[in-house]
Amino acid sequence: MPGFGPREMNTITCSECGAQSEVPFKPAEGRPVYCRDCYAKHRTPRR
Questions:
Q1: Pairing of strands 20-23, 10-13
Q2: Cα-flanking dihedrals φ and ψ of residue 40, to 5°?
Q3: CA distances (Å), 12 to each of 5, 18, 20, 26, 27, in order?
Q4: Which of 35, 42, 36, 41 shows the shortest CA–CA distance to 13?
Protein backbone atom coordinates (compact mmCIF):
# COMPACT_ATOMS: atom_id res chain seq x y z
CA MET A 1 0.00 0.00 0.00
CA PRO A 2 1.32 3.42 -0.80
CA GLY A 3 2.14 5.62 2.19
CA PHE A 4 2.85 2.75 4.56
CA GLY A 5 6.41 1.91 5.48
CA PRO A 6 7.61 -1.36 6.95
CA ARG A 7 5.98 -2.26 10.24
CA GLU A 8 8.02 -2.10 13.41
CA MET A 9 7.78 -5.53 14.99
CA ASN A 10 8.04 -6.03 18.75
CA THR A 11 9.20 -9.30 20.30
CA ILE A 12 6.83 -10.67 22.94
CA THR A 13 6.48 -13.73 25.14
CA CYS A 14 3.01 -15.25 24.82
CA SER A 15 1.02 -14.86 28.05
CA GLU A 16 -0.51 -18.30 27.61
CA CYS A 17 2.07 -20.72 26.17
CA GLY A 18 5.31 -18.78 26.78
CA ALA A 19 6.43 -18.90 23.14
CA GLN A 20 8.48 -16.06 21.67
CA SER A 21 6.65 -14.23 18.88
CA GLU A 22 6.53 -10.86 17.15
CA VAL A 23 3.63 -8.43 16.96
CA PRO A 24 3.23 -5.28 14.84
CA PHE A 25 2.29 -3.09 17.82
CA LYS A 26 3.75 -1.94 21.14
CA PRO A 27 2.18 -4.15 23.83
CA ALA A 28 0.46 -2.31 26.70
CA GLU A 29 1.99 -2.99 30.08
CA GLY A 30 -0.18 -5.14 32.33
CA ARG A 31 -2.25 -6.62 29.49
CA PRO A 32 -1.87 -10.16 28.18
CA VAL A 33 -0.27 -10.60 24.75
CA TYR A 34 -0.69 -13.81 22.77
CA CYS A 35 1.14 -15.52 19.93
CA ARG A 36 -0.83 -16.12 16.73
CA ASP A 37 -2.05 -19.58 17.77
CA CYS A 38 -3.18 -18.57 21.26
CA TYR A 39 -4.76 -15.34 19.97
CA ALA A 40 -6.93 -17.38 17.62
CA LYS A 41 -8.22 -19.34 20.64
CA HIS A 42 -9.06 -16.18 22.63
CA ARG A 43 -10.67 -13.94 20.04
CA THR A 44 -14.43 -13.87 19.67
CA PRO A 45 -15.70 -15.65 16.57
CA ARG A 46 -16.95 -13.53 13.70
CA ARG A 47 -20.63 -13.81 12.88
A1: antiparallel
A2: -60, -30
A3: 22, 9, 6, 9, 8
A4: 35
pTM: 0.72
Domains of the chain by residue range? 10-42
Three-state SS letters, the chain: CCCCCCCCCEEEECCCCCCEEEECCCCCCCCCCCCHHHHHHHCCCCC
In tens, the pLDDT along 6-37 reads 889 999 999 999 999 999 999 999 999 999 99
pLDDT for position 1? 54
Q: Which amino acid is residue 37, in one-letter code?
A: D
